[in-house]
Specification:
- The protein is mainly alpha-helical.
- Helix content is 69%, strand content 0%.
- Helix 2 packs across helix 3.
- The protein starts with a helix and ends with a helix.
Length: 54
């Protein structure tokens, strides 16, 4: 991991109650924290986006 990847940025994220509940359940199913699940999902989406651009 590069140094810049180790640095974490904080953001305020507003989600609907239903989306929060869905992500909470999904994160529990995959043994991640909710924050970890959101970070994982965003990382996967960015990887897919980059694949489509190449």
């Amino acid at each position: 991991m590069e140094k810049k990847d180790k640095e974490k940025k904080q953001i305020l994220l507003r989600l609907s109650s239903s989306l929060w509940q869905d992500i909470a359940q999904w994160s529990e199913d995959e043994f991640r924290s909710i924050n970890g699940q959101i970070e994982y999902l965003l990382t996967e989406c960015v990887k897919e986006h980059k694949k489509g651009k190449m």
